[in-house]
């Protein structure tokens, strides 16, 4: 059984929603995961912020605005009056719920209920549309089986246990529709898998049902081998290993939610990235195997801050790095790149919320230097020890660019360099023309 996920733009207009049936084959047993209509989750975030700030008038204006969009949406989605009425009921229910929150004490619990309405709306409207055109389908409530634990980590075994009986209830049905992004947390409250989380839902369901394949349908033809906005002549990568995809999804390639690689990898479920606008294009296949000894892709991540701690105490000492890392841990700030010498260590972060506190605490160890506006450029491929010459080719391509850090050997799949953001475009172009 396959899992197909369609993103916000793929359901972004009534026309696009109707076109999903060009891709979905209703005769094949499958689970279809839908995102919210594009823009909706952003609007819901604003509504929640207005409520949190106690600005009820603003919240109600935002709700009215969004409701108008949906009223227009269903006018175009449905043809028959009785289905239009059913669509209206769906909208009234969800927008009524949003408005009624004005009468309640507003906490993050209510905020998450708001965020869940986008996917509930898109899936229910699509389900009613399928009824109108006579395509049988089943609406599976994601809140009945998508689950996270105390640490916010999805619990695949729970999902497997709860989704199987739901599917078994409908042995003769083929098409199952469900919500991306939303779940219940360990308290049973409505929660979500964070922004962009519908990909993650698809991969988690894929793992839970041991799916034969997960398909992520977006509006580009797969993961490209460089940033198409910056470099001319980029190409979709036809095949990536899970490790390569994880590196790329994290570094800039916005097409796939980075965490969604791991459930698929654990249960060896192939993931295909495909283009709704060009359904016959091959896209990108992510699977356990890979084409060895090849440079696959170049990606970049901006807004990086480099921190160098210089300390003679580091010389021949043990425990020094642990103390440095503990500072970042205390401020829940992830480190991306690390390089060390005998008397200094450099790390990069992208979340600078606590940079002031971190710097103050690091100053106890030695002198601290901060460089802002840095970019990590990451070259992904198979750099296992049997292959050789790739690092030299990468460095040769950027020999005219000042490098702040180089990281190689952390995994066999990437070489990362840190450059000034001002040098990013030249770095990407030069690597592209020399490596591909
Ligand atoms: N609707 C959610 C978001 O906009 C989840 C998703 O689209 O993947 O973040
Ligand atoms: Mg997305």
TrEMBL record:
ATP binds at residues 5-8, 218-219, 229. Substrate binds at residues 41, 119. Pfam families: AA_kinase (PF00696), ACT_9 (PF22468). PROSITE patterns: ASPARTOKINASE. Its EC number is 2.7.2.4. Pathway: Amino-acid biosynthesis; L-methionine biosynthesis via de novo pathway; L-homoserine from L-aspartate: step 1/3; Amino-acid biosynthesis; L-lysine biosynthesis via DAP pathway; (S)-tetrahydrodipicolinate from L-aspartate: step 1/4; Amino-acid biosynthesis; L-threonine biosynthesis; L-threonine from L-aspartate: step 1/5. Keywords: Amino-acid biosynthesis, ATP-binding, Kinase, Nucleotide-binding, Transferase. It catalyses: L-aspartate + ATP = 4-phospho-L-aspartate + ADP. One of its GO terms (biological process) is lysine biosynthetic process via diaminopimelate. PANTHER family: ASPARTATE KINASE, ASPARTOKINASE. This is Aspartokinase.
């Amino acid at each position: 059984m396959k899992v197909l996920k369609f993103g916000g733009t793929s359901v972004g207009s009534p026309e696009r929603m109707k076109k999903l049936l060009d891709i979905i084959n209703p005769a094949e047993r499958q689970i279809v995961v839908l995102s919210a209509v594009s823009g909706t989750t952003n609007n819901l975030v604003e509504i929640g912020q207005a409520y949190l700030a106690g600005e009820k008038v603003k919240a109600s204006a935002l709700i009215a605005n969004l409701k108008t969009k949906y009223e227009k949406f269903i006018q175009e989605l449905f043809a028959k009056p009785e289905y239009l009425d059913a669509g209206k009921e769906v909208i009234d229910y969800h927008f009524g719920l949003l408005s009624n929150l004005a009468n309640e004490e507003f906490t993050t619990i209510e905020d998450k209920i708001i965020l869940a309405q986008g996917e509930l709306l898109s899936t229910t409207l699509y389900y009613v549309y399928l009824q109108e055109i006579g395509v049988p389908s089943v609406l599976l409530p994601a809140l009945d089986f998508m689950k996270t634990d105390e640490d916010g980590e999805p619990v695949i075994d729970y999902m497997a246990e709860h989704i199987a009986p739901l599917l078994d209830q409908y042995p003769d049905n083929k098409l199952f529709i469900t919500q991306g992004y939303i779940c219940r947390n360990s308290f049973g409250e409505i929660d979500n898998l964070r922004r962009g989380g519908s990909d993650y839902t698809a991969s988690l369901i894929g793992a839970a049902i041991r799916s034969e394949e997960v398909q992520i349908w977006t509006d580009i033809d797969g993961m490209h081998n460089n940033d198409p906005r910056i470099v001319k002549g980029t190409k979709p990568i036809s095949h990536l290993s899970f490790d390569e995809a994880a590196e790329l999804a994290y570094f800039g390639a916005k097409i796939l939610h980075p965490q969604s690689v791991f459930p698929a990898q654990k249960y060896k479920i192939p993931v295909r990235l495909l283009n709704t606008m060009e359904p016959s294009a091959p896209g990108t296949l992510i699977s356990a195997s890979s084409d060895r000894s090849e440079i696959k892709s170049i990606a970049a991540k901006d807004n990086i801050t480099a921190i160098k701690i210089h300390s003679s105490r580091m010389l021949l000492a043990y425990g020094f790095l642990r103390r440095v890392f503990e500072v970042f841990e205390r401020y829940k700030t992830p480190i991306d790149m690390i390089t060390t010498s005998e008397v200094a260590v450099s790390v990069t972060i992208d979340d600078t919320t606590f940079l002031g506190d971190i710097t103050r605490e690091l100053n106890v160890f030695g002198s601290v230097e901060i460089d802002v506006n840095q970019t990590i450029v990451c070259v992904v491929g198979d750099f296992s020890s049997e292959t050789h010459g790739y690092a030299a080719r990468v460095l040769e391509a950027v020999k005219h660019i000042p490098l702040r850090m180089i990281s190689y050997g952390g995994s066999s799949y990437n070489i990362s360099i840190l450059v000034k953001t001002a040098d990013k475009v030249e770095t990407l172009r030069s690597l592209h023309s020399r490596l591909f």
